[in-house]
Amino acid sequence: MKFSFKRHCEERQRRGNPERRTGLLRSFHSLAMTAMVCLLFSACTVGPDYDAPDINAPPEFVSQDVLQALNEGREEQPLAADWWTGFDDDTLNTLVETGLENNFEIVAATARVKQAQARVKLAGAGDNLSADVDIDSDIQERQELNEDREATTTRSVGTGLNIALPVDIFGRTRREIEAARAGLEATQAELRSIVLRISSDIASEYLRLRGNQRQLELLRESIVLQEKTLSIVKSRFESGLSPELDLRRAETSVENLRADIPPLEEDLLNSRNRLSGLNGAFPGAYEKTLKEQKETPAYNSPIPQLIPLDVLSTRPDVRQSEARLKQAIANIGVAKADYYPAFRLSGTLSIGATGVSSIPVSEVLIGSLAALIEQVLTNGGVRDANFKIAQAQAEEALADYEQTLREASEEVETSLAAIQSSRHRQTSLEKAVSSSQRSFSQAETLYQQGLISFLDVVDAQRVLASAEQALARERTNYATQIAILFRVLGVDIRNQKN
Questions:
Q1: What is the pTM of this model?
Q2: Which of 80, 119, 254, 476 has the most crowded Cβ, counting Cβ within 10 A?
Q3: What is the average pLDDT across 143-152?
Q4: Cα(201)–Cα(109) distance, rounded to whole angstroms?
Q5: Coil, strand, or helix at residue 221?
């Protein structure tokens, strides 16, 4: 049901006044100012205002000492935003920088930010003054004969200007703008999260590739070593000094090692293809660039010693979750505003000009101001349902935010625990490699002297190869865990696209 009222006023006729346009502009301003006064003196905003929940973060991580240990012996210096440069690997630097420029997930997220920026403008557009100008003037001419049989010509022309201004008395538009801005914050945080993840994924995949190359190199060295042993065994067998059993065992050992080569080559191919995809290219783009074997780089720069509050205040996924909560709170106000009337001020200016052939043209300016109030009397419970939905969505967003805080903290703890475990494991594996190298050297000497069986030599070779492979894997795991740590700490980076 609609209620409306109009107030009309006519201005005096003017004949050939050169200040006509100035008068029209003043009348237009008068209407606009009247509308603005109505807006300023009657506006209020329904619905709850956003109040940020307390994070209630613990003072330290359970493994806070790991962060401190990671920086032992390193000079204090400002943390570089492009953290991957701490590996001192030019190829890695190029891969990450190229990926941040060309990755299509980042391109898509950037487009979503642009959409969200446009939605903010769209939300505010509904509260703006609008004007329509009728430029299709109606020109009429009429001729009449008077008593003296003289012709009289009457001409008339008219045009008009319509303006309209919604009056956001109960704050629906303001809440819609708040929701749109929160949506923009969420998409910006999502973009930062994707940028951080992509940089971490590229670094991790590159480090795995270098680690697998090292394992492949060690595997081939072990095969060469066992082939030499096989040659010795074969010579002794042909001389009648060793049984055929030793020869077959030596052959089996060599072939078992060779069987481990294809899976590593498959992993290397997949890593090169994965890096191509992360950099916005098709598979095969880095076949030549990454084919050559290089050592797995070690991280040599400082690592931020953050506490839980630092992490939970800055991590992009936490910021995104909080922005979703802001948006849900604002939408409660939008739903609440549906219970109240909607107001609209409208005004018109119409200009008419008439004149007789021998009489100067008379111009008439007519202005009107109207207000329209719209109120839904009954809608079958739609408003109640929408309001309850908005409240439930806010409850869901709050629960998601709380869960995100805990998952973020858990991810940091998991990463720190993995780094600590890897450090201890590397220490043990380094000792194991050193010991197994001595053991194998002694076994070879004793076998050639006929003091032990070939089975002892094979066992010593197997232990050495296994220890070297395990150490190479652990060093790769440690390097990738450092890359993961930067992601879970939510460290902001310089090359993010906003």
A1: 0.80
A2: 476
A3: 56
A4: 17
A5: helix
